[in-house]
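ok so for the tutorial part 2 we go from a plain amino acid sequence to predicted structure tokens. step 1 is just haveing the sequence, like this:
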Amino acid sequence: MSFVAYQAIAISLGLGFLVGLQRQWSESETAGIRTFPLITLMGTVGALLMKNVDEDAGLGWVIAAGLVSIAILLAITNIAKIRAGETDLGLTTEAAALLMFLVGVAVGREMFGPAVVTSGIVAVLLQWKKRLHGIVGRMGEKDIRGVIHLALIGLVILPVLPDETYGPYDVLNPYNIWRMVVLIVGISMAAYVAFKLLGKGAGAFVGGIFGGLISSTATTVSYARQTKDSEDVTALAALVIAIASTIVNIRVLFEIGVVAPQLLAVAAVPIGAMLVLMTIECGVLFIPLRRQNATPPDHDNPAQLKPAIIFGILYAVILFLVAAAKNIFGDGALYGIAVISGLTDVDAITLSTAKLFTDGTVDQSTAWRVILIATMSNLVFKAGVVAVLGSRQLFVWVAILFGVALTGGGLILAFGDGLIDWTGEWIAPITEKLAESASTAEP
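step 2 — the prediction. this is what the tokens look like for a chain of 443 residues:
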């Protein structure tokens, strides 16, 4: 036998011990610290024995026979438990045993990476039984419905949409439009899940971060209303609103990296400068307020079909308008569209501009300016929300914070190209590497 074969046996033994250790610690009566290594080794040895045999003739039936044999042994074990009067049998250990046999086969086939990852997932899922059950127990009907809607949005609707371009300017592709919907819903849903698990108990700082990822506008509305009832939380509400608005810049950079990786290499400098400026503002305000608390908002589940459809329509409209304005009026008209669309939704104008940059319709200098103007317009809109819904003191806080940010944004718009050139020598390799990594993954 070659060294690789002995290596496979050693890896298989280690992975079997990993899962077996967890099952032994959990006091499983079906399989434990000895049985799981044997099951994994059985799969590996079976794969090694048939390695030099024609796969179509030999490997298939050997693996199938081994899998059936283990299934029979597990069935016999459960039958014995039933005869002994046990009623709470469960299927987790049995499923893990069958999967670890296949892991052993993968190791024997020298698929070491997938085998190790799969074994780690198995061990974590087994160990996190109470934690996962607790998470499900804390989920309400709204959360379950959100998971179903997410599956509907990403796994049912997307695959059936036509991947063809319709209409003038060649920009309206149903598949690509809905793919952007999946991206935005996915980002918001991930933040929503994290907020449910950690946000409510982690303070205003984390609440602001999750609020920016889920919906900075909804976060602004919620905290502004709180100051109407209690002005004691005004400064803290201003901090959370500022943090949520700062996180929007990170969200924008991520969206650009997914849709237009090459644009990220340029846009990272001006938008990153805006991010740094607003982060400094948040840091200055955070130090004296870090121990205060306010009631976090009860965010709506972002994976809902109606808002997803509305966003898809909005994205398509903005995509069309940007392309038409560019064709008819030139680049100058794009800035007006950015101001209007950014008032209510930064994602749509960001994604549409990035898409048009990828198609060659918009140049990089115009693209990052359009996106930055949209984020600045969104700050103005949220300041208006605070003026209407919040206390006068909160509006003063937000006006100062956003005023500084808007002033900085204006300077970035004016001198952004020079800033890009100045930082290009040392930041370009980083952004290009990030762009290359992003371009290898489909959004």
